[in-house]
Design a protein that fits this description.
Length: about 325
Amino acid sequence: MRFCFIVEEQYRNDPMPMVIADQLLQWGHDVDLLEPQTAVACLSDLAEQGYDAYVLKTLADGPGLSILEAAEAVGIPTINSARSIRLVRDKAVAAAFARARGLPIPPTYFVAHPRLLKQIPASEYPLVVKPSNGSSCRDIYLLNSPADLTALEIAEANDSFFLAQRYAQNTGFDIKVYVTGREVYAAIAKKSPLHSDMAEHFVPLTPEVRKLVLQVGKLFGLDIYGVDIVETPQGPAILDINDFPSFGGVPRAVVRVSEYVLHAAKRAEMQRTAHIERARQRRQALEAKKAGKTIQARPVTIAGSEKVHDDLVSCNL
Ligand SMILES: Nc1ncnc2c1ncn2[C@@H]1O[C@H](COP(=O)(O)OP(=O)(O)OP(=O)(O)O)[C@@H](O)[C@H]1O
Ligand SMILES: [Mg+2]
């Protein structure tokens, strides 16, 4: 198969997503790298370039998403879909969408400037204030009451907007859960910037957390993603959703994520073939009707997972 990996400048020297591109190359697939910060991308013949899928690990405000959306617009499968990335890369959008779908995410306010924080009712405290475009755990502030606002000094260097979110009472660490499709890999306890240091370790993946993260994937339409959760007295609360996370600490992550990329591209190819076949049958039936004949339309089935698996085996896996 033929893949185009869009690599944002910030990830050029990171393991993800390059290790996935390398693995696919080793398995004999074609992989091109497109670095939007260093090379122009020709948009005039995207459909003719012969890619089976575009892959993007998005960067908040990075240029990669424009190209991914362009590829999607001309009918090329993308991993993840542009819509799902749009829903998660701005935390304000993700919080509103998650709340509207009934997911357990703390009540959240959008704050265009820190001076507006005083408008938030005292009843919402303790509050966490954080940049709405993600900050890799930098600039996260915990305010116990409105009195803390006077001492708050937020770094405004990067023109961020902010979210003020009700603090989710928790056990003192984040639980990072990584998923591809319907496979939930692992739950890893990691340090929270709001709590004291701790050694990273695996924690049991509870059925409740598994169900929750799969629900997140389904509602947001994500293929490859991570969900940051904390355990609260009311059950798990979602704090963050990331498309194409690092999968840090996940055993055999490179092989498993690469297999999933192949699987998703294959599945998209088969759906496309079925779609073309359905259109052909409709045309045929219409022509037959015009000519006064009736023909029996054959139902088209999209291959199930066994078929996908067989095809993957024939992809040198
Ligand atoms: N509402 C909250 N209640 C409790 N802890 C929170 C809350 N919001 C954030 N935190 C803590 O702060 C951490 C960072 O928050 P968040 O994941 O939203 O931002 P980020 O990690 O900087 O963003 P990104 O992962 O996109 O770079 C969380 O993992 C969690 O430990
Ligand atoms: Mg986070």
